[in-house]
Structures are given as structure tokens and as C-alpha cells.
Design a protein that fits this description.
mainly alpha
Amino acid sequence: MVKCYEERKDKMSPECRAWAERAKSVAGILRDKCSKELDSYCNSEKGDPFRTIDCLQSNYINLNYDCRVLLNEFKNMYPKPVN
């Protein structure tokens, strides 16, 4: 996903590119703040960002406060489905 973004970011609108850059930044901070949790609960999912987020969410009660806050921020960045 990151590789795809990097290859195509020049073709994206400024708004879309800004959103993607912010998501990338928060994801990096999330990895840093949740490193102990990732090692303890999600080690096998580390190569897949979607499975990693699902794993953190599945272990939400065991996450430290900063990790939970960032996980929520990251999840809230994504648009809600339209019904």
C-alpha cells in the first residue's frame, strides 16, 4: 500500500495527498507507541498493516493508554461507509 502511494502520489489531489501523508505519519507514531504491544500480541501480523490494526483492536483492553489513543485516531481518519 505504501509503495503504491509513493508511486502515485504526484497524481493525487493535494487534499488526498495531505490525508495520505497524515495517515502515514500517524501509522508510524502508532508503531512506535505500540511497539511493546505489537511484540507481545501482534508479532505475526507485523508485515500486514490491516491485520496489525485488527490485532491491536482485538487486544484493545491490553493496550497502554497512548497506544489506544493513537489507534483510535488512526481508525477515525478513515471515512465511514456510506449506506
